[in-house]
Amino acid sequence: MTFVHRLALAALATLALVVPARSEPGTWRFADDPSRPVKAIVIGGSVSAWPNGAFSDWLGGVCRNLEIENRGKAKLTAQALRARFDDEVVKNRRLKVADRLARGQEVWLVFMAGLNSIGNPESTNVEVTKTFARAHAVGLKVMGLSPNPWGVETDRRWMGIDGLAYFRHTQRVVDHFLGRLDRVAALGKHAGDATAFTPAERADVAVDLWDSTLRDRGAATRDAVRLARDAKRSSWLKAQLKGLDPATAEARRTELLAQASTLPTWFMPKRFHSFDAIHPNTEGHREIARAICAKAPASWGCDCALLDGARWEQATRRVISTAAPLVGPPAP
Q1: What angle do CA 221, 226, 230 make, to 5 degrees?
Q2: In which band, very low, low, confident or very high, does the pLDDT at 325 lie, cut at 50, 70 and 90?
Q3: C-alpha 201: how far from its chain's center?
Q4: Is residue 39 within 8 Å of 304, Cβ to Cβ?
Q5: CA distance 75 to 332
Q6: Domains plus CATH for the chain?
Q7: Which residue, 111, 106, 157, is CA-closest to 130?
Q8: What are the respective helix, strand and coil percentages of the chain, to the nearest 5?
Q9: Interatomic CA distance for residues 106 and 172, integer angstroms
């Protein structure tokens, strides 16, 4: 069984997982190539753990100053990913983060979380906030990657007008990553007395993968007649209209039906699917790298145009150029 098959099996229940036990402190370290003074660590779930040309591989090929280590692991919720950051970075003695920072080295956390716990957006946002604050507390800069588009018409979570529930869950987590919400809107009952987030609780750079080139904007909308018929049996819709006068309820119903008809345009197109409609394939990861590259700090030294003339070579397990030479990493 290949690694991709094992990853697929591990991700079958990717949005309804039990938080695994905390692992041991990490023992990995950077290669410390002097030509790549900026360091970055990817912490994420099964999307970031894609083994065949993940976005980190693409970035390593086009960002000349960046040494990036991908510590993604499948089957982790936002809470488990916060623990993984502690284990793989903060408690990793071989990484020597404090020494690097004392020498003036720039170290980034690239954090991608949310899909495995998207059904509980408030708790997910709490964990994201804590991770950002923890990373800043130890001196790291933070890049937050929002959840990517996910879903398909045959997924019961997205069926009919009820699919708006998961759309709203996802949008709420995305908006938190992007710094659009105050504490109450993002965290709900977990907000506490304060209404505003501190700078330490926000990402230094936020990247929107949800509304990006990974989204199928040209997808066909749903049949309005069928959608309206099926909506008559929706308990979710009834809850949304409860307590409204007839005229207001009808206007709200019409509005929600219109929103539900466009849900397929928020899915990922099939050309970017790997083994399912949640995890991007190698070309999808190129698009993730493209979105990151556009927002990357100048210190990373990225040449985003190189992404167009590059490809993933399975034999050497590296991104290579079909046109201009890439900036790295060197061939093994």
Answers
A1: 115
A2: low
A3: 17
A4: no
A5: 30
A6: 3-220+268-321 (3.40.50.1110), 222-261 (no CATH)
A7: 111
A8: 45, 10, 45
A9: 30
Sheet strands (E) in 63-131 = 66-70, 107-112
Three-state secondary-structure class, residue 39: strand
pLDDT in tens, 21-68: 457 899 999 999 999 999 999 999 999 999 999 999 999 999 999 999
CB atoms within 10 A of CB 199: 10
Work out the number of other CB atoms within 10 angstroms of the CB of residue 275.
14
In 121-131, which positions are buried (b, 16+ CB within 10 angstroms) versus exposed (e)?
bbbbbbbbbeb
Model confidence band, residue 321 (pLDDT cutoffs 50, 70, 90): confident
Distance CA 75, CA 219 (A): 29
Strand partners, 280: 273
Report the helix count and the strand count for the chain, using DSSP H and E: 11, 7
Tokens of 78: 């936002």
Q: Are 97 and 138 in contact (CB under 8 A)?
A: yes
Judged by DSSP in three states, 173 sits in helix
| CB-CB contact of 278 with 14 (8 Å) | yes
